[in-house]
């Protein structure tokens, strides 16, 4: 049959990215406690398209991804992109998958178990010259209590839920769970899906004794990642913190990044 995608295009306009976007697919990722967990990812996959080609073969993105979806670990993600690049005869391939990551977490006093949902994503590009860039993103919900409110109020202090988003340039394997746990320790308190009354008392008092501005959380997470115990230290990362303020009609925001000359 006629293969129109491989036919010549005379407009001489290269395209930096062509591919598939918003694909929903079941994937299996590594789990520190249970070895693996199955979740559902939103998948974007692309390659570059030289000016002389009319199109690319969209179905091949899915064919290759399907081979890897039962073990989409950090290392396998790069292997998958390299295979896509080769099979589509491209100079570069790109990929991004976003997925909910679930952790069973016990309440701090009663020990009541529950499931917490976090968000993670892999974002990478692979070039034919061997250059690879791979970022891991993780989003962690936390609680923060305002130091200023505590200092000026006779009773209580306002607190709110916040989000911490980190993006890390991959340099060595790490567990997503360890990053999540460390981020949670940087806030006023952690969040839980199940809390009995004794747990609510504990969490409320813990937050009150550990007030944090959004700026404090950003700096604490920065230090945590800078000193994270991996064999090859992170060369680049960003930290983004946002509080959904409970007494202001705006969100509080802070951002910082670390760059060791990459």
Order of helices and strands: EEHHEEEHEHHHEE
Q: What profile does the largest beta sheet have?
A: 8 strands, antiparallel
Query: What is the overall number of helices?
Result: 6
Catalogue the unreliable spans.
Answer: none
Biggest sheet strand order reads: 1-2-3-4-5-6-7-8
How many angstroms separate the termini? 47 Å
Spatial extent as radius of gyration = 22 Å
Number of strands: 8
How would you characterize the overall build of this protein?
- It is a single chain.
- The protein is of the alpha+beta class and 262 residues long.
- Helices cover 25% and strands 40% of the residues.
- It is built from six helices and eight strands; from the N terminus they run ββααβββαβαααββ.
- It has helices at 58-68, 74-87, 147-152, 176-185, 197-208, 214-226, and strands at residues 15-31, 35-49, 92-106, 113-127, 132-145, 159-169, 236-244, 251-259.
- Strands 1-2-3-4-5-6-7-8 form an eight-stranded antiparallel sheet.
- A hairpin with a 6-residue loop joins strand 7 (236-244) and strand 8.
- Helix 1 (58-68) packs antiparallel against helix 2.
- The longest helix has 14 residues, at 74-87.
- It is elongated, with a radius of gyration of 22 Å.
- The termini are far apart.
């Amino acid at each position: 049959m006629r293969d129109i995608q491989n036919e010549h295009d005379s407009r001489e306009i290269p395209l930096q990215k062509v591919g598939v976007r918003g694909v929903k697919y079941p994937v299996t990722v590594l789990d520190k406690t249970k070895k693996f967990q199955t979740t559902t990812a939103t998948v974007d996959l692309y390659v570059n398209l030289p000016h002389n080609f009319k199109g690319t073969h969209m179905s091949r993105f899915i064919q290759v991804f399907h081979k890897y979806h039962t073990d989409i670990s950090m290392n396998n993600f790069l292997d998958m992109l390299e295979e896509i690049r080769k099979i589509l005869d491209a100079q570069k391939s790109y990929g991004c998958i976003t997925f909910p990551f679930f952790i069973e977490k016990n309440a701090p006093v009663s020990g009541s178990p529950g499931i917490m949902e976090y968000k993670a994503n892999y974002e990478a590009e692979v070039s034919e010259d061997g250059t690879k860039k791979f970022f891991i993103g993780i989003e962690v919900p936390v609680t923060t209590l305002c130091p200023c409110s505590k200092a000026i109020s006779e009773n209580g202090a306002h607190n709110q839920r916040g989000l911490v988003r980190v993006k890390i340039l991959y340099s060595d394997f790490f567990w997503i769970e360890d990053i999540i746990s460390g981020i949670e320790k940087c806030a006023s308190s952690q969040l839980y899906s199940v809390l009995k009354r004794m747990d609510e008392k504990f969490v409320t008092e813990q937050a009150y004794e550990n007030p944090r501005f959004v700026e404090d959380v950003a700096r604490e997470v920065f230090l945590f990642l800078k000193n994270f115990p991996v064999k090859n230290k992170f060369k680049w990362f960003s930290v983004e913190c946002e509080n959904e303020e409970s007494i202001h009609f705006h969100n509080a925001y802070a951002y910082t990044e670390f760059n060791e000359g990459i």
